[in-house]
Amino acid sequence: MKVKEENVARATAEATAEAKTDTTKAEEATEETAKERRTGRDRRVPTEKTRIVIVDTHTLFRRGVRNILDLEADMTVVGEAGSGREAIAVVEELTPDVVLMDLALPAPNGIETTQRIKRELPHTGVIVLAGGDDEDQLFDAIRAGAAAYVLKDIDPTDLVAIIRRVRAGEYLINDKVFSRPAVASRVLKEFRELAVYGSDAQPIFAPLSPREVEILDNIAQGMTNKQVAYTLGISEQTVKNHMSSILRKLSVNDRTQAVVYAMRQGWIKLPED
């Protein structure tokens, strides 16, 4: 009888310890999730389906897009929203990979909502949906952090392809912006102001940070990673980390391609003789 009581007591103690461990793990997981949200760390798992939220004032449009995307095996629509405020709440709760954003939302409009989403969840790609081809809206979209700017009459096949590319981290809005000289000059002007005035300049969202542009600029002059590190007063490993980020953001394979791309976009100057 004594042995049996001891076994019961031991089993009870073990069960209690396991319960405490599970509770601790759950608390740690909750804390880690909150920390990831605050730091903006990428929580996406590449092997999972692309999780999408559709934001548009018209229910019929949202349902139509959902029906199209539901046909794709690698995509799932996890939520919808009909206003900017609703979109912010839904996106912050569901943390999707991609958001399809109607520009014609009532206040807060599509641009303002995109800015808020990119500030809270920088790894979520936003594709803005415009009713017409407007250069002012295009400029505002790139400043807000949109990854792509498409018209609402886009072919469904093209929309699906764009979603996949944005999910992969591409900023398709670049080519559209820099194919418009007037918009490109405004963007470049803000880049230059950012370089000169720093935090006092009007903010502009772009795929590359000012530091990454600075590093590419030095590499374009023929510098090695070690020379760039010495010039900028940072470690060589930091330069390598920035280069990895640059290659990923621009979807190129090596530093030469990155330099050529940045020069073509006008982000960096040509090497001096």
What does this structure look like?
- With 273 residues, this protein is of the alpha/beta class.
- Among the domains are: 50-177, Response regulator (Rossmann fold), CATH 3.40.50.2300; 208-265, Arc Repressor Mutant, subunit A, CATH 1.10.10.10.
- Helices cover 59% and strands 10% of the residues.
- The protein is elongated and about 55 Å long.
- The termini are far apart.
- Residues 22-26, 33-45 and 192-205 have low confidence and may be disordered.
What share of the residues lie within helices?
55-70%
In the CATH hierarchy, the architecture of the domain at 50-177 is 3-Layer(aba) Sandwich
Structural class: alpha/beta
N-end to C-end Cα span: 94 Å
Q: Class of the domain at 50-177, according to the CATH hierarchy?
A: Alpha Beta
H-E order: HEHEHEHEHEHHHHHHH
Tell me the radius of gyration. 24 Å
Looking at CATH, which topology of the domain at 50-177 would you report? Rossmann fold
- Can you give the mean pLDDT? 76
Tally of extended strands?
A: 5
At the fourth level of CATH, the homologous superfamily of the domain at 50-177 is Response regulator
β-strand percent reads: 5-15%
Task: Note the overall shape.
Answer: elongated
Can you summarize the main beta sheet? 5 strands, parallel
